[in-house]
Amino acid sequence: MIFDKDENTTIVYQENPTLNIFLENLSKGYENIKNDHIIINLFSFSKITKNDILEFLDISNTHKKANKSFVLVTDAVSYEDVPDHISVAPSIQEAKDIIEMEEIERDLGI
């Protein structure tokens, strides 16, 4: 698992993983990145489904309760196909934009 830290945001990715191994490694490494906004880069997976995205629901909810952003990056599943409480973006830049908007909303108390 690779953690790429940029200021208060960490991008997480892994080459050639299975989803189960990725989730297991993310859980193990979560303690090290829990204070950062997290972007999960899923482009290394050749197939991602809506149900695969839902596997991240628990960690996403935990992270968002701590007032931090959690965004999944994939173009294989549309943000329209997943529940509103999971953030999905088609690119890393759009994920960073979502984090910036969520920070503004938190600052404004929205």
Summarize the topology:
Blueprint: E1 2-6, E2 9-13, H1 19-33, E3 37-41, H2 50-54, H3 57-65, E4 70-73, E5 87-89, H4 92-108
Parallel strand pairs: 2-3, 3-4, 4-5
Antiparallel strand pairs: 1-2
Overview of the structural elements:
- It is a single chain.
- By secondary structure, the chain is α/β, with parallel strands linked by helices.
- It has a single domain, classed as Transcription Regulator spoIIAA, CATH 3.30.750.24.
- The chain contains 4 helices and 5 strands, in the order E-E-H-E-H-H-E-E-H.
- It has helices at residues 19-33, 50-54, 57-65, 92-108; strands at 2-6, 9-13, 37-41, 70-73, 87-89.
- A 5-stranded mixed beta sheet has the order 1-2-3-4-5, sandwiched between helices.
- Strand 2, helix 1 (19-33) and strand 3 (37-41) form a beta-alpha-beta unit.
- The radius of gyration is 13 Å and the shape is globular.
- It starts with a strand and ends with a helix.
- The mean pLDDT is 91.
